[in-house]
Amino acid sequence: MTTxxxxxxxxxxxxxxxFAYWVERLSxxxxxxxxxxxxxxxxxxxxxxxxxxxxxRRTCAGHEGIKQQLLTSLSAVQPRHFRLAAARSAPRRVSxxxxxxxxxxxxxxxxxxxxxxxxx
Length: 120
Fold this sequence. Notes:
Helix content: 25-40%
Oligomer: single chain
Number of domains: 1
Strand content: 25-35%
Shape: globular
Order of helices and strands: HHHEEHEEEE
Structural class: alpha+beta
């Protein structure tokens, strides 16, 4: 694809809608199939929990690590109602380590309170 064609295609992307779709999928899968849930993350991606799921600061890597962490915490935490974070900046396109991606904040509820997440 030429640079001009790539730029034209990218200019039509609604980053807020794309991120909202990801958040909706994450929310829908939290109470279901863990195999499908981990697929919303990059294969080499990370899940960084800062208190919301484990009451510790913990980082899990890759699909298997994320799956194992969620297996141990989902039933107690009962995460639900994932939504775009209203009080944070809107989802946007960024470049991290030379890779184009969308980053944004989302809010969610658990059995004991609420939290905010960040994804890029």
